[in-house]
Amino acid sequence: MKALEADYDELREGDPQGRLFNDDLAPARASDRQWNSYALFSLWMNDAHNASNYTFAAGLFIGTGAIMGMTPLSIVIGVFIATFIIFIACCVSGLMGYETGAPYPVISRVTWGVWGANFPALVRGVVAIAWYGIQTYLASISLELLLMRIFPPMQHWTASFVGLRLSGWVAFLILSGIQLIIVWRGMEAVRHFQGAAGPIIWVIMIGLGVWMLSQAGWDFRWTVNADNVTPPIGTQFYQIFVTVGLTIGTLATLMLNFSDFARYAPSRRSVVLGNVLGLPLNWTAFALTSVLCSAAAIKVYGEAFHDPGDLLSRIDNDVVFYVVSIAFIVATIGVNIVANFVSAAFDLSNLNPRKISFRVGGIVSVIASIVVTPWNLYGSPTAINYFLGSLGALLGPFFGILTLDYFYYKRSRVDLRDLYSPNPEGRYFYRGGLNTDALLGFIPAAIVALCIALVPAFSKVSPFSWFIAAPLGALCYWIVETLRGNKPLPTDSGD
């Protein structure tokens, strides 16, 4: 049964209690497939240009913790290599979405079982909710500064509740409401927002880099870090590899659930072309812009800034301030919807399709993002490293196992009727709805991934956790399947 030919009534009848099927989780119809290569290119424009990624690139340049300041050249080369690798991974993930028409949590049923898929979906959903809150908080900083400049009395709204001042609460809730409205209107509204916002943000951020560089007298050196030091060649090569690892780790979440968007693509070509144009170009350009601004800030203000909010607060040109503030706000809304909101809504809907629609999942995500107080989470390196770091480390094994099973063992052939059916005779019911082989393959890979992410002794290789965990997950799953005597489907087998 092909995705484009899926009969919703048939799928619904196969799940009369609504435990696995609703219209939001159903395969995308032909009429839904409007995400062409430009739409996916715009998606990556929004994903790249935001406050969090500015902080990431600026942090590499300035130096944070054990990471010494890197040169602009090392950062740009590392980001370019990383995004090319991510391009390949997202094409793999995207093709699963295109072929089945299903979102990530439903595709996971192929490998984990119709009930077992709730495990990877829940882990991805928790990560998405936490980062949704953090991204909203980062954007709210820019909005708060903007509102204060427009309405100066807000500067005196200093009363604090659970660690956030009143003016910050106003900005945070406004942004949460805007994002909920966009997602509430459905994926077509998301597509239109991305398509309109992406190019505008791109132009503004490039303009900011040029303006900051002009303020610094056009003084920019590719091989000098924030401390005005040129590291040895060997160190610069190591920094390139570290940048590759950290960049891939930053995008590990979206690599896993890119099928949430690619399911709406009209062709395989759209998926590949949108990714190849969107990923290396957008991410490398924004990394360079962030480093340019950081280097120029040293000349202009005497210090570099990790946080774009700190940079904005020092800009005394009203026009530049307003334009860039709005750009950061819109860009962060864009990446938040793409990387976190959509995923969380689908993942939560998968837990109980009958009661939790895509919209309800969005509401729950917003409420949950407030409950976790993301400003406290973001301000705690321990929480970031141990909570989000540990959950993020699990995404590599999830990706490796799913990819190997879907393309090698299942040969990209999926029966949609069984994918949405709780029938014990269905091919994805496995043992009580759980594929224990996937679990057995996951456990050793997860242990290794958690050790790499959390144990200080492995700090030198922690940037490369995804590189290690993803293929290790696939290897462990292959070993389990081999020991059980399970073989891939014949290449000439039918559906």
Describe the structure.
- The protein is an all-alpha fold.
- The protein has a single domain, classed as Hydantoin permease (Orthogonal Bundle), CATH 1.10.4160.
- The protein is 69% helix and 1% strand.
- The chain contains 21 helices and 2 strands.
- The protein has helices at residues 8-13, 37-48, 51-62, 72-100, 104-112, 118-150, 166-184, 187-215, 233-250, 252-257, 259-262, 268-301, 308-314, 318-351, 358-371, 374-378, 381-393, 395-409, 416-419, 436-454, 465-484, and strands at 160-161, 164-165.
- A two-stranded antiparallel sheet has the order 1-2.
- A hairpin with a 2-residue loop joins strand 1 (160-161) and strand 2.
- Helix 8 (187-215) runs antiparallel to helix 14.
